Structures are given as C-alpha cells and as structure tokens.
Amino acid sequence: MEGKFGVRKGAWTTEEDCLLKKCIEKYGEGKWHQVPLRAGINRCRKSCRLRWINYLRPNIKRGEFTADEVDMIIRLHKLLGNRRVHLKRWSLIAGRLPGRTANDVKNYWNTHLKKKLFGQSQFVKTSNKAQTTPRFEVIKPKPRNLAKNLAWMQVRRDRKSVLDNPPQTSAGGEIPSIPSPATLQKSNMTSWWSNLLENSVKDDCQIGTSCSNISGHSEKEGHVTKFIDNVFAQGETMEGYNNTVTLEEEDEHGCWGNLFFDVDLWDPLGGEPNILT
DNA sequence: AAAACGACCAACCGCCGGCAG
DNA sequence: TCTGCCGGCGGTTGGTCGTTT
C-alpha cells in the first residue's frame, strides 16, 4: 500500500477522510502540496485533492443519475465531443450538473452511455492494449458562404421551457419573423437573434453561446453577436447541423443555470422550412 | 458451493498549461 | 527565455461486488 517515498496508496480509511476534511475546513481548498503535512496524512497532494473533490466535498450528489441529468450529459457531450482537444470536457459537463463531479460524469459515460450510444462496432483499437476509443464522426460545416446561401433559421427552445413558455415578443406577439433571403445581412441576423433570444428569457439573464461546430472547437460565453460574428468569420454554413445556443440565467437562490436552444440552419433551396416544436 | 464473468467506480498515472523565479 | 513547481485534467487501472454458469 505504499508508493514512492513511502506515501500511502489505495483506498482511503475513515480516519484519513476525517483528517483531510478537518484540514480543508480549517485552511480551505488549494495549496494542495501543503495538505498532507497540515492534515497529517501520508498521502501525495494529488491523492488528497482527488479524495476531497470526488468524495468528501460537501453537497456531492450520490446515487443514480436522473433522466434529466443523463439527457444533459448526452447533449453536452454531443456539443463538446467534437472539440479537437477534449480538455475540460468532463468538468464542463459536471459544472452543469449540481452535485456531480467530473469523475462521476466520466464514469457514468464510460460505463453506461458509451456502449449504449455508440455500439461496439464504432469503437476502434488505438493501441496494442485492450483500449478502445469511440470513433466520433467529425462534423464540419459545409464550405458554403453563409451570407449568400443561408436564408432560414428556426429555433427550438429547450424542451421543458419552450413547451411551457413559448417565446414571445416584448409586445406579446409571436416569434419574431425569420429573415428572408433578400434581407439576410449580418446586421439583420444579429438583430433577429437578439430579438428572439432576449424576448424569450427572463430580463435579467445573460446570453452566451456555444459554437462547437465552428472550426471544430468550442467557444463559451459571449453574446449573440459573437455567435454571428463567428459564423460570418468562417464564411461557412451549418446546414443540416444542430447547434446549441446557451442562455445563462440566475435563479432566485443566486445559482446559475442554462437554457438550451437547439438551432437548425438549412438551405432554403432545399425546400420549405420545417417548424421545429 | 464455487469459479468465472461482468459492471461499477474510486483511485492512480501521465500529461499539460499557468505561473513564479 | 528557460526551468521547475503546482493544480487540474482525461484516460486507464484494479479492487469490489453482484450475477451467471
């Protein structure tokens, strides 16, 4: 049970847990290199940090993942899974699931969802070890000019919120008009998006975007204009590809949560636009 | 009853980026 | 600019436990 330099490894004892908890409560999180000494635990700094983050930290949620949580994991993994570098993927997902740790989410994905969603045939061996990695299909925007070809956009509010509270304009009317091909300019798009989004959510919310499909990486935070700018900067459309725009808003307890818009962009020449519900 | 197998998950390992000196 | 340290991350391992044979 002892590793290099005589530090303990393996399962934690209740005594070690108790010492670590008292130490963190006294000195706070951080300065992990000092924790083993302060707590009087013969463990390495990383082991202490991991034990605290994944097990001892207050408000950690145990037990089965709810259907909503699973849905969120799948949606966010779809969104973040196409990043060239998966840095912070699990922690970002866990950040949207109060009480869940990145390790929990990762374990749940690996043991429950990976096989279920991708099936055995889509896994490829990446080395001589019995190690498999899902062969994600890389989704790239079609190399077409957005300003010239994109004409219609529809927005579907996150299931729960949109069905209960359909987007309304400030005047209490219907969803703002979709820009026509003739009028589709950058300024129009920005204005249209802003009108729709800002009239669809609480007044005090902030608007952020996730643009994982644009140039293969994800952009968090920002504004509708940033989303539009990115699209125009790429000079590409996202025809037939679902994107997600994230609306961050604060609840009455001061906790931040997200609403998701599924965005479907398509070429009007391909036929009549479908109204997504 | 016990061996084999599979699922689960806590914990480890190696790598990376940020930062201070 | 370089180097070393630290915090943080994803991928993987291995122990435990329940189920099947």
From TrEMBL:
Domain HTH myb-type: 4-60, 61-117
GO biological process per UniProt: regulation of primary metabolic process
Keyword Repeat: yes
One Pfam family hit: Myb_DNA-binding
TM annotation in the entry: none
Record's keyword annotation contains NADP: no
Cell compartments where the protein resides: Nucleus
Record's keyword terms, sorted: Activator, DNA-binding, Nucleus, Repeat, Transcription, Transcription regulation
The protein, known as: SANT/Myb domain
Source taxonomy: Eukaryota, Viridiplantae, Streptophyta, Embryophyta, Tracheophyta
